[in-house]
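Example for tutorial group B:
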C-alpha cells in the first residue's frame, strides 16, 4: 500500500482509513463460533429459558411451498424478509 500519496477522506477506496490503520497498528479479530463450542450447552439452557419466559423473542418468515421458494430467495437478497427465512413443504391433513 502506498502511503505517500495525498488521500482525501471521501476517497472511494477508503484510503485514509487504510493509512490510519497502518500508522496506528489496527487489530481486527473475527468471531468464529467453534471458539465457543464448549459453552454451547450453557447457552442452549439459558437461551431456552429466555425464550420460554418471553425475555428473548424471535421472528420467522415462513414461505409455503416449493413454487414460492425462488421469490422468497430474491426477497431475502433484497432484505424483504425478517428473522429467519424458512420454506415449509408441510401440508395440512384434514381429519374426518
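The residue assignment follows.
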Amino acid at each position: 500500500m502506498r502511503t505517500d500519496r495525498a488521500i482525501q477522506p471521501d476517497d472511494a477506496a477508503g484510503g485514509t482509513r487504510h493509512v490510519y490503520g497502518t500508522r496506528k497498528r489496527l487489530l481486527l479479530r473475527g468471531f468464529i463460533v467453534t471458539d465457543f463450542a464448549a459453552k454451547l450447552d450453557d447457552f442452549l439452557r439459558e437461551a431456552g429459558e429466555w425464550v420460554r419466559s418471553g425475555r428473548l423473542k424471535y421472528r420467522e418468515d415462513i414461505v409455503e411451498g416449493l413454487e414460492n421458494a425462488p421469490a422468497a430467495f430474491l426477497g431475502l437478497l433484497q432484505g424483504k424478509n425478517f428473522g429467519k427465512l424458512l420454506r415449509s413443504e408441510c401440508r395440512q391433513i384434514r381429519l374426518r
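The chain has a mean pLDDT of 79. Compare this with the pattern of hydrophobic and polar residues in the output above.
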